[in-house]
Structures are given as C-alpha cells and as structure tokens.
TrEMBL record:
CDD domains: ABC_Metallic_Cations
Domain of life: Bacteria
Protein name: Zinc transport system ATP-binding protein
Organism expressing this protein natively: Desulfobacula phenolica
Family under the similarity heading: Belongs to the ABC transporter superfamily.
Transmembrane segments: none
Residue ranges occupied by any ABC transporter domain in the UniProt entry: 9-238
Keyword match ATP-binding: yes
Length: 253
C-alpha cells in the first residue's frame, strides 16, 4: 500500500459556536493517512463537536475543513462513524445483521444488494461476532454492542473511521480486544477516536489530540514499565503533556 504524505484531514483556523457560545476556537489540525489518534479532553470540551465538523454534520462558523482536498459533504461516503453509545437509541427490535446493514444505507438506493450483504458479513467477521448474526441487538452485552457498532461503521469500507468513545462502559479486557481490532483496521485506514482517558492511551495510539475549546496535538510515549502494566492491565502509551490543558486554553510550563 502506498502512503500519501499529504495531510488527509486539514482544519484551517476553524471556529464553531452553539447559540453564540464558542465551543471550538481557531482550530488548526492536520491528520495524515493511517494516523491513529485519540481525542481527549474534559466533558463539554468539544470532542464530539470536532468529530461532527469532520463528518460535515455541522459547519464551521469560521475557517475551512478539507478532507482529501474536498469538503466533508463531498467525501461523506469515505468516512465511517460510530456515535457515542450513550446517545444511541436502539429501542426497537433489530438483530445484529439489521444493525450492521444500516451502515450500507445510501442516499441513492432504498434496497440492499448482494454486495451490501457480503460487506456486512465481512465486517461482522472482522469484529469476531459471526456467531451472533441472528441475535437481537438488545440482547448483546455492552462490549458486544460496541463491536457491532464498529462493524456498522466499517461496512461502508471507509478510508477514515471516526469513533466516539468506543470503549466507554466496557471492561479492560474488552477494551484491549477492541483496540486490537482497531489496530488491524489502522493498516489501511485513518482512525480518530474519542477517549475518556486523559493520561494513558492504548499502545496502538500514535498521537493524542487534546480538545478544550482550543486544540493541541501531542505525541505519545511508549510505556514499557511493568508497574503501569500491572495497574492498568494492558500495554499503554503515556500522553506527553508539556503544557496544561485548562478552561482558558493551553498554557506551557
Ligand atoms: N446541539 C447542541 N446545542 C447546543 N449546545 C450543544 C449541542 N451539542 C453540544 N453542545 C454543547 O457544546 C459543548 C461541547 O459539547 P461536546 O459534545 O462536543 O463535548 P465533549 O467534549 O464531546 O463532551 P463529553 O466528554 O461530555 O462527551 C457542551 O458544552 C455542550 O453542552
């Protein structure tokens, strides 16, 4: 696979406000192909808002967003999205296959093709859930639901995957399994993932985007200490914070 060194996602001086309340201000961000970045920051800091801007669900008040050199709307089909689990209303009967097939719905056709079904089955296999194809979504455990939601985002075969807290409410073992799935996918797609953890992230994460009205990108440092591994039960990377992320923005020590 040939890597393109030009940034895939560019946010150029982007600001966004809800009802005149500034949520994101002067955001400059460049994400390259095959990046695996974790988006961290305090509650209400603007992480989901950042994902929605990249998806084109909301538009910047100021500045420009370019993805593969186009607007988010123009490349929407190339982006997979897994929304925050807590925001998902799945209070209707649907089995695993139905839920994953929703990821193949397009604006142009109202029916599914054989290819749609094959892609859905492949995505379910990729997250290790083939045995659950006919199971009701609501009967799955939290971790199994998260896997199926990843499969739903995956089955449109996106070049970029946006995931909003995919490991919320799952135990550490399940979290590790989900990250292992994402690492495999990262070999041919760019991954941006909102995470609740501020100090440590999975060893697969290459950089950390810190969002608190303003946005700063950090490198990650591989942890090889057994103590941290014992405490967190997994291989982790530490976020190198050489500044403070505060309400008023980012100040350097
Ligand atoms: N549709 C909306 N209308 C008005 N305000 C909104 C709307 N959606 C989000 N907000 C506000 O924008 C701010 C940023 O919200 P956002 O969901 O981006 O934060 P977040 O960093 O993802 O938070 P969390 O960690 O709690 O999920 C919050 O103060 C929130 O109340």
């Amino acid at each position: 696979m040939k890597l393109n060194n030009d940034p895939e996602i560019i946010l150029d001086n982007v600001s966004f406000a809800y009802k005149q309340r500034n949520i994101l201000e002067d955001v400059n961000l460049q994400i390259k192909q095959n990046e695996f970045a974790s988006i961290v920051g305090p509650n209400g800091g603007g992480k989901t808002t950042l994902l929605k801007l990249v998806l084109g669900l909301i538009k910047p008040d100021k500045g420009k967003i370019s993805i593969f050199g186009k607007t988010p709307d123009q490349v929407r089909q190339r982006i997979g999205y897994m929304p925050q689990y807590a925001h998902l209303d799945m209070d209707f009967p649907a089995n695993v296959m139905d839920v994953v097939m929703m990821g193949r719905l397009s604006k142009t056709t109202l029916w599914f093709s054989k290819k749609d079904r094959v892609e859905a089955l492949n995505s379910i296999a990729e997250v290790g859930m083939t045995d659950f194809i006919d199971t009701e979504f609501n009967e799955l455990s939290g971790g199994q639901k998260q896997r199926i939601l990843i499969a739903r985002a995956l089955c449109s075969r996106p070049d970029i995957m946006l995931l909003d807290e995919p490991t919320a409410n799952v135990d550490l073992k399940t979290e590790e399994n989900l990250f292992a799935i994402l690492q495999k996918l990262n070999s041919n797609m760019t991954i941006l993932l909102v995470s609740h953890d501020l100090g440590f992230v999975s060893k697969y994460v290459k950089s950390v985007i810190c969002v608190n009205r303003r946005v700063v990108i950090h490198p990650t440092t591989l942890m090889d200490g057994t103590l941290i591994k014992d405490i967190y039960h997994g291989d982790l990377r530490m976020v190198r914070h050489d500044h403070r992320c505060s309400e008023t923005g980012h100040t350097y020590d």
